[in-house]
Amino acid sequence: xxxxxxGTRTPDIAVTDGSExxxxxxxxxxxxxxxSPTYWQKGMALLAALVVTAxxxxxxxxxxxxxxxxxxxxxxxxVLLAQMIVARREQRRWVLxxxxxxxxxxxxxxxxxxxxxxxxxxxxxxQVVIAFAFAPRVTTVAEFIRPKALLKFxxxxxxxxxxxxxxxxxLLLEGKIGHLLLPTLAPWxxxxxxxxxxxxxxxxxxxxxxxxxxxxxxxxxxxxxxxxLVGVVTSCIFGLQISAPxxxxxxxxIVLLAFQAEIAGVLLGLLLCLAIALWFTAHGxxxxxxxxxxxxxxxxxxxxxxxxAALGVALPISAIQMQRNRMIGLLRDGEKRFRxxxxxxxDVVMSMQLDGRLTYVSPRAFEAWGRAPEQLIGVHxxxxxxxxxxNTLAAMIEQVATGRGxxxxxxRFPRDGGLRWIExxxxxxxxxxxxxxxxxxxxxxxxxxxxxxxxxxxxxxxELEGLAFRDSLxxxxxxxxxxxxxxxxxxxxxxxETYLAxxxxxxxxxxSYNDHFGHQTGDECLRTIARSIAASSAKYTDLVAxxxxxxxxxxxxxxxxxxxxxVAEQIREDVEKLRLPHPPSVSGVVTISLGVCAQRSDKxxxxxxxxxxxxxxxxxxxxxxxxxxxxx
Length: 632
Fold this sequence. Notes:
Blueprint (H helix, E strand, L loop, with lengths): L17 H5 L4 H4 L8 H29 L7 H12 L5 H18 L4 H21 L6 H4 L2 H28 L6 H27 L2 H7 L3 H20 L11 H10 L2 H20 L13 H49 L3 E5 L5 E4 L3 H5 L3 H4 L10 H15 L5 E9 L2 E13 L6 E10 L1 H22 L9 H14 L6 E9 L2 H8 L1 H18 L6 E6 L2 E7 L3 H17 L14 E9 L7 H16 L5 E3 L1
Helix pairs in contact: 3-4, 3-5, 4-5, 4-6, 4-9, 5-6, 6-8, 8-9, 9-13, 11-12, 11-13, 12-14, 13-14, 20-21, 21-22
């Protein structure tokens, strides 16, 4: 086994998760085709793997020849592994077959025997298969370098795969694994391990199409300029014969590239830097020749360590930048969506500080308050309302600002010389990280029309109520309302000793009046009597009602029998003083008869007994000659 190689390990790299990485790539790169690949596509995948693996194998041999003693990196395994990672599942076995044929063909082309070629090819493919088993199933480099997936790949795909393939090659070539295993495996492990660490993600850039995406992006000119800057700086540092240790001056342009470009562009820059550094170092130039290394193998090993460090610096920066750009993009999209919703919403959308000072107002504010949104920034929201509602709205905002949930308030806002009813719904804004209250958001809706409708409905309800409980002829309450109110009064006074009086009134000889003058004059007579009764009892009575026909009824609260009789007599006298002509009557004018009943409220029951007693007193007054008052 005579293929000496060198290598090292890579540091941990913190990047975003795979779902985040996919969002920054062209859609064509991340969407799997729905149909299975055809045999033509499978054959092309096999052919591509064969050709690229063979060329990478020969390039690795060229690197070994260029450095004189060692192969700095074994490219073919890493290139084949990258192709298998990004290939579709149905194509992976074809890619592996193509890589196997390419590796075997290249071994034969450099003059190795059949046995040696089979041994090296089987060892290489064993490494690829084991590394693939530990590699994440991804389609982009950003997904490949996720922390958990990368650590799994480093310990299984790099360490285990390189050791296992080296032991297999030793066993096939030497027939046994002896005590010199470690010195024998060291060059193999270093060269193959370093290749898997550095070249695998670089090759994925080409196989996944990310490089083409970078070249098509809007930042392609800046990316190409920064990659060129890395190449120029590397060429100057390694090409000029300067004895000063300037190696680490290669890092600033790489870091700048990591800050400004996507991961694909960063890896392209690193590959260019590595190629230039290897070329000049192999030809006796560059800062590594300023150090007294024992030989080329150690000098190349130092260069490999440097590029692992550069990779460890650049990739985390690029990944963090990608995550930052994604977050900025999400924030911009969120702000755009918020503004679109706010500007097209029928409500006024607002943000305010905890003290109620406005920090954002949507354009709908002009329709609600007649003021441009920019004129409202910094204004206390409560100051916009009518003075009568200001304190109530300010208290509601303070309630929400102290963390007591959300609240709504309908307030009156001055507008165009009038008042507009505005419903404001205020909610707290909680910081998701700290959990603290850091602001308020509010929605304001003009409900003036709704309030007008509600007022109209209330008026209609009152009107209907009036129609249901009012007598249409006299305007007094009707019997239904009288009975309901009497029952309620009795129930309310059931635990008191106060008196409740009922006065029943009947127009004397009303039928003969109606027959003599006609119904219209009769109706007018009833209206006149109703007005007189209401006027006479206004100071004493709680309720006057038309009980039915020519009968009227009164409820007197807190009226003992003597007082109830006095009120009834006053009513009778006032009606008689009207001197309404009534020829069929003995007196010649319209008169009334009254019956009075006064009882203690706790003995009234539901009021029916009081009405019955007053009614009996009324009939007694009529029997005794009319135009008089009787008390039950």
